[in-house]
Amino acid sequence: MWKVILRRVLIMIPEIILLSILVFLLAKMMPGDPFTGSINPRAGTAEIHHLMRINGLYDPWYQQYWNWIVHLFHGNLGQSYQYHESVANLIGQRAENTLWLSLFTMVLTYLIALPMGMYAGRHEGKLPDTIIRIYTYVTYCIPFFVILVVGLWIFGYVLNWFPTTGSISATASGFSGTILSRFYHMLLPGLLGALFSTVNIVQYLRSEVIDAKRSDYVKTARAKGVPEKAIYRHHIFRNSLLPIAAFGGYSITGLLNGSIFTESIFSYPGMGLLFVNSISYRDYTVITALVLLFGILNLLGTLLSDIILGIVDPRIRIK
Predict the structure, then answer these.
(1) Nearest Cα to 312, choosing from 249, 256, 232, 230?
(2) Are 186 and 103 in contact (CB under 8 A)?
(3) For a surface tag, which of 8, 123, 227, 297 has the fewest beta carbons within 10 Å of its beta carbon?
(4) Where is the ABC transmembrane type-1 domain (predicted)?
């Protein structure tokens, strides 16, 4: 297993190099610059050109890329033009919020999806199965940002049950107060994200349960007198988890990368909102660092999915 993981990590190195070149070039091809209107609305053309020159933005792209890579290997992601602080510190501050929200959403997703998928598959064709299928079809047809906006409007503004901005209340104090405030701010976006993310898991698990309960090994277990609950718990459920486990790594990294909609709509100070703001202000150093980070997370998600699949079913060997 460890040899396979090491080989896969080594294969990722040229992929990350190619990704870094594409990310850097695409960021530099964006129209505009990070200084016009952000330093001083009355700043003249000469002052803008001076700032561009001293920051090396007039250098050839390959020289800029080389300087960026050298600084990157020294742990220096550059300085944010908009926030005037280290990009590493800036991302580190926002990454904690994104990580907490992503983990919370993922836990809620599986807590909701696994029972629903098992129940729908076990009661195929009955009323509960029909209701769950209608839920998955309707949820699948509605765009994610629409679910977020409607949920924010109903529960945040109309009913006023949840906060609509931020990650921690300004009045929170102490360890327990901070934890409760963070949980309170994550509850609505996490629940809405989980309800949307359950669709594929429920559909996959339902189909696997339906196929598994008609398989020969289940018929044999029933013929031996194994209780129905034990059959579903030890036979059907375990074998039905294989396709779900295959998407486990993608689910984790996908939540980290897919937080842009959630954080933008809820004004949640995470990496997604930072990425959107950086594009608006042409903050090249932050854009390149975040896109490269998201790309690396996707590569790691592929490896993580294979590892999870190998743990769930030891008969499967990753290559």
Answers:
(1) 249
(2) no
(3) 227
(4) 95-305
CA dihedral 153, 157, 160, 161 (to 10 degrees): 20
End-to-end alpha carbon distance in the chain: 9
Cα(288)–Cα(68) distance, rounded to whole angstroms? Answer: 10
Q: Read off φ and ψ for residue 72, nearest 5 degrees.
A: -65, -40
CA distance 234 to 122: 14
Alpha-helical (H) ranges within the chain are: 2-28, 45-54, 61-73, 87-122, 127-141, 144-151, 174-212, 216-223, 228-230, 237-246, 248-257, 259-265, 271-280, 284-312
Counting residues of the chain whose pLDDT is more than 90, the rounded percentage is: 1
Structure tokens at 232: 């579903």
Q: Which residues are CB-contacts of 163 (< 8 A; sequence separation ≥ 6)? A: 156, 169, 184, 185, 188
DSSP string, 174-208: HHHHHHHHHHHHHHHHHHHHHHHHHHHHHHHHHHH
Give the SS3 label for residue 106. Answer: helix
Which of helix, strand or coil describes residue 86?
strand
DSSP, res 263: H
pLDDT tens digits, residue range 123-179?
888 888 889 889 888 888 888 888 888 889 999 888 888 888 877 777 777 778 788
- Using an 8 Å Cβ cutoff, are 210 and 264 in contact? no
DSSP-assigned letter for residue 234:
I
Q: Under 8 Å CB-to-CB from 23, ≥6 apart: which residues?
A: 288, 291, 292, 295
Q: Position of tokens 């959107």?
A: 276
pTM (two decimals): 0.77
